[in-house]
Amino acid sequence: MTVQDPNVVSTSGAGSTADSTRAARVVRSVDHPTDGVTVVSVGGEIDMLTAPELRADVLGRLDGGSTLVLDMSGVSFLGSAGLAVLVEASQHAQRRGTAFRVVAVERAVIRPLAATGLGEVFSVHGSVDEALAAVRAGDPSAG
Fold first, then answer.
1. CA 81, 86, 92, 94 torsion: positive or negative?
2. Alpha-carbon separation of residue 61 from 9, 45, 143 (angstroms)
3. How far apart are the first and last CA of the chain?
4. For the chain, which terminus, N or C, has the lower number of CB atoms within 10 Å?
């Protein structure tokens, strides 16, 4: 008997329905708690299949000039493609003179950030409230 995990993405054909369904669930919600601040909550697995959608969403919001808080509390896996999106977003924000903050509480996110040293590159917070407090305080360590 063969049992298939519904969370496994089929690799037999590019652009399959499973691929697009999985990618569409990366960004779970967008909130604007105060003027000039956008909180994007993401979840699931951030890997080579889902990172392009996250990249487009995050960079598009940074182009709008708003401070971006990326809440990754619901992320269960952060691969190298996801790390690349975070680095690019941080650089994009710096070029535009806006703030980019990451909320990381799960080991699946904290561990790759620590292992690569990226936790020191941009502002990482333990909650959205902490990130918003840093925004209000004008924390210069955030990039």
1. negative
2. 28, 21, 15
3. 52
4. N
